[in-house]
Amino acid sequence: MDLSITFSRTYNSSSNDIYISATSNKSYLMSAGFPYGNGEPYDGILVNTDFYNTSVNRTDAISCFTHELGHCIGFRHNDYMNRVFSCSENVTVVNEGSTSTGAIHLPGTTSSPNPGSWMLACSDGTDRHFTLDDILALKIIYSYRKNIYVKEVLHYVTSDYWYDAYSDWEMVQWVVYAEFYQDANHTIPYTTAGNFVLNMNIGSESDYEPYAELIPDGLTSASLGTFTRERYYSYGTLVQDNSSGYRVASFPGYWGP
Ligand SMILES: [Zn+2]
Fold it and tell me: For residue 229, which of 167, 163, 164, 156 has the smallest C-alpha distance?
């Protein structure tokens, strides 16, 4: 997935960052914890051998190991606020809540439980692959920066205005495209690969939030949709800004046409 984090397996128990060991007679399939901070992951995964052992072959084994590794490197259950979403058979479901650990929503990913995600609280016994939201979350947290140059291109759609003695209104609409290049002069196109993530801003010109979007593989440009600049002025002073849409983040001359 082109992440900045990689894993290597060691059988040396004194040089590991995350160990995997056996437990039994527990109410969980596997368990882990959250990172210690300063780049240190949580250091242990417990595997309940009542469920995982040499005489059974559970389809969810890989998903569960991946899930616990996810906890160790900082990922929470995405149904922490509504645990019944994945643990519906369990009648004594208690929501986790954000707790003192905290839960930070990654802009661009859904803030509600993500069907099929590898970080749902409960296994459904199946082999869960990464969803598009999972991939985006991993790419945001463990981003691997490439020297890809993004050119923002605005395609004019329409504009309107009125001016009177003391107040003005202006509206301009563009469709915003991001074009990808391998060079700073924007001559050699780059074709997206490896789940390319584009960092954008969403909002108005005065109030915007970062937003990450997963761009499908095989593209040399992507439409970010319509951006509308709509502003009211009174005696030359901006009094209302209804601008909205997506723009490429950190683009020079950011909000202007
Ligand atoms: Zn978990």
Answer: 156
- Rounded CA separation 140/148 (Å): 16
Cα 123 to ligand 1 centroid, rounded to whole Å: 9
For residue 3, how far is its CA from the centre of ligand 1 (angstroms)? 21
Is residue 26 pLDDT above 50, yes or no?
yes
Residues 113 and 2 in one domain: yes
Q: What is the per-residue pLDDT for 257? A: 40
What's the CATH number where 25 sits? 3.40.390
Cα 47 to averaged position of ligand 1 atoms, centre (Å): 12
The beta strand positions in the chain, using DSSP E, are 19-23, 30-31, 44-48, 149-163, 167-181, 196-203, 208-215, 221-234, 237-241, 246-248
Same domain as 128, residue 193: no
167 CA from centroid of ligand 1 (Å)? 57
pTM as predicted: 0.82
Tell me which amino acid residue 213 is: E
User: Side-chain half-sphere of 131: how many Cα atoms within 13 Å?
Assistant: 15
Cα(177) to centroid(ligand 1), Å:
39
Q: Output the CA–CA distances (angstroms, integers) from residue 81 to 33, 51, 73, 120, in the order listed.
A: 18, 27, 20, 11
CB 74 within 8 A of CB 34: yes
Residue 133 forms part of a structural domain: yes
Residue 103 alpha carbon to ligand 1 centre in Å: 14
Give tens-digit pLDDT for 64-117.
Answer: 999 999 999 999 999 999 888 998 766 567 788 888 889 999 989 999 999 999
Tokens for 79? Answer: 């149904």
